Amino acid sequence: MTDEIKGYLDTLIPPNLPKKRRKELYDELSCHLLDREDRYEEVGYSKEESLKKAVEDVGTDHEVNQSISSEFESLYHERAWWALIPAAVILLMNYSCFWFDTWVTSADFNDEPTPAKALISFVMIFICAGFIFFARAKRFRKMLVGTAVANLLIGGTVLICFYPQAALYAIENVAYYLIGRFTPFTVPNYGFPTLFIYGSVACTVLSAVYCIIAAIRIKKGQARPIGNLRTKAIVLGVCFAAVTVCVCVLLPRAEAFTRDSLKQMNMYTTEESEALSGGIEPNAPYADAAVFLTEKVRHELSISK
Predict the structure, then answer these.
(1) pLDDT tens digits along 133-149
(2) How many whole angstroms separate alpha carbon 152 and alpha carbon 145?
(3) Cα(210)–Cα(149) distance, rounded to whole angstroms?
(4) Which of 59, 105, 137, 294 could form a disulfide with 64 if both were Cys (CB 3.0 to 4.6 A apart)?
């Protein structure tokens, strides 16, 4: 590569590109310029004139610089420290659950989340989802990686996965309430006190996996652009807000329904339960007895109402 070509390429290629990409562009454009220079020399132009006409064919500094910048802007204009923003916010939200008291490690360890605490948890989930949606739409690989690292640190152990717990607790209880109140099916939600905890871990880990896959696809150029970005963002936001409002409004009713069911269950002594069972053997599985008694409680609650 001659000094003239190198000087031209120095003014042509944006300096903020990574070294590897700059080298690729240097090699590609210098070969292109040398080929054109050789063609002009073959038809009789001098070396200086051939180089000048080859540069004119490639384009002016501004035109080519703009073309290169626009082509690789989506991949290389992101700053490395941007990855710290979602990571810091998510970790701060997670540990702020201590201050807001929105974490539930088990049904017997902490108070039941109120609708306000569930709302705070939903807001935290929305913020995390917003980081993921924004980074994916803008193709910010580093931001996706930062979000993935934070969620992996949170979801790596049950003991520190706090911010989704209250929301998933509310969703779980409302789902059990709707099933038990308006369908013929019976779901004894008091039998699964830690389901929302493991659900929180699953949500954070799965979101981290999605971020990693999306970052890899963006780097390889396989990620498709998101069409109708504003419309999709509005629709998803409205749907999330509707679910949040419905769950928070129904949560007190769901907890009251659960308390009434447990109260009715506790009213029966062992002897009364055996008498009511109408044929359940003493050594029958606990699940069978629980389902039977739950049906009895539901029947009595429906009569009382």
Answers:
(1) 999 888 888 899 999 99
(2) 10
(3) 12
(4) 59
